[in-house]
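Request from the bench team (R.T.):
"We need a structural guess for the complex before ordering more magnesium ion. Sequence and SMILES attached. Just send the tokens back."

Command: build protein-magnesium ion structure.
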Amino acid sequence: MIPGLILRGVGGAYWVHEADGRVTAAKPRGIFRRRRLSPLPGDRVFCTESGDDDFPYTIEEIAERRNALVRPPVANLERCFITVALADPAPDFELVDKLGIICRVHNIEPLIIWTKTDLAPEELAGHRLQYTASGWPQYESSLEQQPVASLEAEIDGHLVSFAGASGTGKSTLTNALLGEEVMAAGEISEKLGRGRHTTRHVELFRSGRGWIADTPGFSQLELDQLGILPEETIQGYPEFEHYAPACRFPGCRHIQEPDCAVRQAVADRPELIPRYDRYTLFRELLEAEEPWLLRRRRGQLPPPGLPLSSNRF
Ligand SMILES: Nc1nc2c(ncn2[C@@H]2O[C@H](COP(=O)(O)OP(=O)(O)OP(=O)(O)O)[C@@H](O)[C@H]2O)c(=O)[nH]1
Ligand SMILES: [Mg+2]
Ligand SMILES: [Zn+2]
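Reply to R.T.: structure attached below.
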């Protein structure tokens, strides 16, 4: 079978990229529809020749997934560049932390890019300090200096996406990374008459030996809507996860339990306070939701790690 990567899917039709760079239109076998399993951009697939000129390939198999998200609909994301502007718009740290939680729960590595550092350079050090203990890589970007080479190194061989509030410079950085390629893709889309749809669908763009997923709407996120469970909140805070094994109670929530190593660490290290306060905010918000409702919403995500092999259909 022919191995490929799904770059884009619209209305049941897919673009499959092969190692030699060719992109071929494909339709999945009916079995996927009957199982309510759709290939997603980012899926590794195996195809056969269909004999149909319009859709020369049939998608026969979807390789096991690292993860799969509904919003944005994309599979196998490995890294997420969280963009935060220093001003215009002002930083939304709750959004940053929510993105961090979602990333870690779905096995995606978060990275932070502080953008528009030309607008409020004096605030950068304080913002960075909040995230130092998380261990997440942090980059800076301004009109004069974009961290293109560093980001290219982070993208190399991986599937990444940008996420962050509107106006924080995602498109600006994506264009800097993709240069003419994305414009070329835009011209092709006009010829194919799909220009109108460009913001509504995820599409993967080549960047060196990696891929950037252009994902509209990654910023409108509510943890409860995504089915994140209260006890998973801590995963977005690796600096607290690190202390948790030393807590007195195994199920410690790190909020009011006695002999809590996380609370002790926060008392000793004031730079941990802002993220700790948001941790407790999100944890308590999720604890106020019905657990069964959260689990059901989580269950509506596309199945990750579902190996499908043709000999089973
Ligand atoms: N001063 C300054 N302006 C910037 C910088 N980066 C981007 N901008 C400007 O900020 C505005 C928004 O940037 P975009 O790249 O469109 O932001 P976005 O994150 O793609 O926004 P959405 O598509 O709405 O989600 C544009 O007018 C950019 O020119 C920067 O480093 N400094
Ligand atoms: Mg944009
Ligand atoms: Zn604790």
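Two things stood out. The pocket of guanosine-5'-triphosphate (ligand 1) is lined by residues 115-116, 118-119, 141-143, 166-172 (CB under 6 Å). The domain at 74-214 is CATH 3.40.50.300 (Rossmann fold).
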